[in-house]
Amino acid sequence: MPTPTVDILMATYNGERYVAEQIESIQRQTYQDWRLLVSDDCSTDQTLAIVKSYAVKDPRISVVSEGVRHGGAKENFFSLMGYSTAPYFMFCDQDDVWLPEKIETEVMALVDAGSTVPAAVY
């Protein structure tokens, strides 16, 4: 059975201290069929440059919005949902670190729930 693609939606703002570690934790996932979509809310630090440096090396990573002031994390995440085309998506904080099996565990729970019922996992 083919694995479904998962869009990971990351809203960033002045997260240069943390964002690289979070991106690397996503790259270390046991589940590899993902895309990281990043929307930056006009950071004034090096957040965007850091994200772009990873995007150059990993085609699964894309900056989908920059230079747009969303006004907060909620609005930024909401705007990111419009870029997602995958059957599943996950919200991702810039200052988090994911355990290696996070995506795999959550996708398998959704697949086990079946496609006929709405489901959310966390």
Give the SSE layout:
Layout: E1 6-12, H1 19-27, E2 34-40, H2 47-57, E3 61-65, H3 73-81, E4 88-93, H4 102-113
Parallel strand pairs: 1-2, 1-4, 2-3
Give the gist of this structure:
The chain has 122 residues and is of the alpha/beta class. It has helices at residues 19-27, 47-57, 73-81, 102-113, and strands at 6-12, 34-40, 61-65, 88-93. Strand 1, helix 1 and strand 2 (34-40) form a beta-alpha-beta unit.
Which characteristics define this entry?
122 residues, 4 helices, 4-stranded parallel β-sheet, alpha/beta, 34% helix
Arithmetic mean pLDDT:
93
Largest sheet: 4 strands, parallel
Rounded to the nearest angstrom, the radius of gyration is 14 Å
Contiguous runs where pLDDT drops below 50 for at least 5 residues: none
- Overall strand count: 4
Helix-strand pattern: EHEHEHEH
Oligomer: single chain
Widest beta sheet: strand line-up: 3-2-1-4
Question: Helix- and strand-based class?
Answer: alpha/beta
Alpha-carbon distance between the two ends: 24 Å
Give the helix proportion (percent range).
25-40%
Total helix count? 4
Bulk shape: globular
Describe the structure.
The mean pLDDT is 93. With 122 residues, the chain is of the alpha/beta class. Helices cover 34% and strands 20% of the residues. It has a 4-stranded parallel β-sheet, with helices on both faces. It starts with 5 loop residues before the first strand and ends in a 9-residue tail after the last helix. The longest helix is centred in the last third of the chain and has 12 residues, at 102-113. α1 (19-27) links the parallel β1 (6-12) and β2. The protein contains 4 helices and 4 strands, in the order βαβαβαβα.
